[in-house]
Amino acid sequence: MVAAYTANCQFQRTPTPNDNLKSVEANVDGSVTFRIYAPQAESVSLSVDIRSIGAETNKLENGVWEIVVPNIADGAYRYNFVVDGVTVYDPKYPRIADIKPVASISRNQESAFWAQKDVPHGALSQIYYKSTTMGTTRRMHIWTPPGYNASSDKLPVLYLIHGGGDNDAAWPGVGCANWILDNLLANGKMVPMIVVIPDGSISTDLFTDEMMKDIVPYIEKNYRVLTDKDHRAIAGLSMGGLETLNVFMAYPDKFAYINVMSSGWFKDNKEMMDSGDKRLGEISSTLAKNVKLLKFTQGGPEDIAYENCKEMLKLFDKNGIKYQFSEMPGGHTFHVWRHDLYSFAQAIFK
Fold first, then answer.
1. Quick one: average pLDDT of 161-186?
2. How many Å is the Cα radius of gyration of the chain?
3. 254 in a domain, yes or no?
4. Residue 325, domain extent
5. Bigger pLDDT: 103 or 176?
6. Same domain membership, residue 35 and residue 145
7. What is the C-alpha to C-alpha distance for residues 105 and 72, in angstroms, rounded to an integer?
8. What is the pLDDT of residue 7?
């Protein structure tokens, strides 16, 4: 098995108190503690749609600000922080990525493959499901093509994973995934398929179980899909690329189409490279028999994952595993990943 890592992207950084910060905590005395990591701030206050008389504010030595508001009854309340006079939404709120503004700028709407156009649109759904892996309810986005509900056809499935710091709202949001899929299908460039966008914001080792024991079974039970490996594809960017690697290396006979975007094992992590090399040797013949397309894509040398990927692919070469590699200018950004999805979606299930 490949050693699994929880890095959110393709570089290793110094941990901060923000990493494990609990931003809202209900206390047994009826008060609620709100927290935000703002080490350089001069002042922090709280704006909340309840009376916060008697609130106490303290800045801790580690840069975390705590605001304790007494006597809050059970309920749901809107709130935000005010940091040095600037309104700041809680960056630790689980769905903060959902409300990040996305400016769709297109000077030529008709030539932009990712833009919303006057074509039939698929349905983009938010689905909540029970995760046995995490012991909680989790969410994913699912795109179904136009006419899916009126049809009886079974369709192939692409599992599409976001990167670190985002969640399952990122691909439909800044990634424009649903518009890309709508346009491809309308132009006859893509096979009708279902696209499942999981929330990959858990540790990469747990995500493998989440995918294969929770997400795939849920989709195959609740949607009209083809359930053999020839009709399953998986793709992911950055952290999601690591999760994609982990999944197909643990289950080398379950996906016929694979795209690892802007990702790779950390070139300076000997344990990661060695365990990956060993596992590739174990599964090379299985991959050759079952995988129709294994693709690695990068945003050029300016992509922060570029060297990691290049070093990793030397091990794929060593073990005789065939793959495609492509790169384009743009770095570690959705500008590149939208193009990756555009190309990959046209190549699969044909």
1. 95
2. 22
3. yes
4. 100-347
5. 176
6. no
7. 43
8. 43
